[in-house]
Every structure is written in C-alpha cells, then in structure tokens.
Amino acid sequence: MSDEPYIPAIRARLVERKTAWARDRRAPVGRAVGPAGRRLPPGQHLVRDWPVLDLGTHPNLNPKDWRLSVEGLVASPAIFSLADLAAIPPFEVTADIHCVTAWSRLDNRWRGVSTRDLIAEVRPHDDARFVIVKSHDGYTTNLAVDWLYEPDSLLATHWEGAPLTREHGGPVRLVVPALYFWKSAKWIRSIRFVARDVKGFWEARGYHDVGDPWKEQRYG
Ligand SMILES: Nc1nc2c(c(=O)[nH]1)N[C@H]1C(S)=C(S)[C@@H](COP(=O)(O)O)O[C@H]1N2
Ligand SMILES: [Mo]
Q1: Which residues line ion ligand 2, judged by CB < 5 Å?
Q2: CA atoms of 75 and 71, how far apart (whole Å)
Q3: Predicted model pTM
C-alpha cells in the first residue's frame, strides 16, 4: 500500500503545476505592496476572502470520533479527543495567513489550544527536534519543534468565533502563522516527534523545508 495521499484527477494537474513551479523556483505573479505595508512579507498580496486550497478531498470527520495522536520521542504519548482538548485552557490569537501562492489574509481570529500547552502535556525528549504532521486526507508536513513554541501557534477549532468548517480543516487543524500556510495542516490526525527531519508532501516536491515568509523561503 502506498503512503501517498489519494488525489483526484483534476487536482493531480494542479499538484503537477505547483510542483513544476517549485522546481523552477518560479516567483509568483502579481507582486504588490499592500496598504498594510510592513505587515506583508515580500512577494505577497492581500486578499479579503479566504481561499480553500488542498489536494481535493475534504474528509468528513465526526467531531465525536475525532482523535489526535501525539507520539514519537515524548515522555507521555497521548491520544486526544475534542473533550480532552477542551480540558486544556482555551487559547485565542489574532494572526495573519501567508500562503506560498502569494496571497495573505490579515487578522484571522483563531481559537483552540496553544501548541505550547499541547507540548507540555506530552513532554518531548531532548532529541526530539522535528515533528511530522499527518492529516486525514493523506497530507503530511514537517517542521522543527521550535515552531510549535512560537507564541501564536495553535491547534485551531474555531475561526472568527465559529467552529472551523470542513473545507478549512475542521474539526481541528494546525495553525503556524510564522510559516507559509502549507505547514498549517488541515484535518490533523497525528503529530510525531522525531530526531531527524523527514520531508512532507510539498517539501518532497520542492517546497522549502522551513518556509519562513519573511525570508521568502518558498522553494528549495
Ligand atoms: N490536510 C491538508 N492540509 C493542508 C493542505 C492539504 O492539502 N491537506 N494544503 C495546505 C496548503 S498548500 C494551504 S495553502 C492551506 C490552505 O488552507 P485553507 O484551505 O484553509 O485556506 O492548507 C494547507 N494544509
Ligand atoms: Mo498553499
């Protein structure tokens, strides 16, 4: 059995094109300096709506059955239900979205659980330097553990006061505002702490391993 996510045919074309852009280190078109000035990383433009971007399958997850496995190099591996998350003090933050395809959306009000609080529950070992995040649509992404200590990173259950919709990754998605949005895995199912970096779906297709929008780390 392949580890690769199932991608519908029409989306396969899109994945191919984005992979080719990554290979060519193609700069996105439509560069603009927005009215928000310095809040906009280089090469980004503002959008007012919130685009839906993914591999084309939107898992239909029953909140009652949703579980998150936090595993790997941690002292207390754990499986969290939504009720377990609700027992952790709620966390709210307003943060910007920067997508590698060059759109940014400012001032998104997120609610959920701080990844700092989540980490405190499982207590990673000292040699846990990266995480690999897996989602219910087969998507994966990797990041250094440090990004989960950023003060605005969270497991989001709500956006603008309402439960996260299915198309945007509900019931729970990762949100790491300090990195390009491809690192913010929708329909999250597991977080594995590891010693050595392992590339995720887009990272294996030429996207930058880190993906800091302020350093314009889009590709390679
Ligand atoms: N599970 C999953 N998460 C994902 C993706 C995906 O295909 N599957 N796409 C990523 C990419 S490339 C982007 S830009 C954002 C888009 O999130 P949105 O649809 O809520 O705007 O989700 C990220 N997280
Ligand atoms: Mo993206």
Answers
A1: 53, 99, 182
A2: 9
A3: 0.91
Average pLDDT over residues 91-109: 97
Question: CA-to-CA distance for 207 and 201, rounded, in angstroms?
Answer: 9
Cα–Cα dist 74/2, whole Å: 27
Q: Which atom of ligand 1 is nearest to the CA of 97?
A: 21
Alpha carbon separation from 128 to 74, 132, 146, 194 (Å, rounded): 8, 11, 10, 5
Domains with residue ranges and CATH for the chain: 9-51+61-215 (3.90.420.10)
Dist CA 173 CA 137 (whole Å): 12
Q: Specify whether the CB–CB gap between 115 and 155 falls below 8 A.
A: yes
User: Coil, helix or strand for 203?
Assistant: helix
CB 208 less than 6 A from any atom of ligand 1? no
Cα 193 from Cα 80, distance rounded (Å): 16
Per-residue pLDDT tens for 160-219? Answer: 999 999 999 999 999 999 999 999 999 999 999 999 999 999 999 999 999 999 999 999
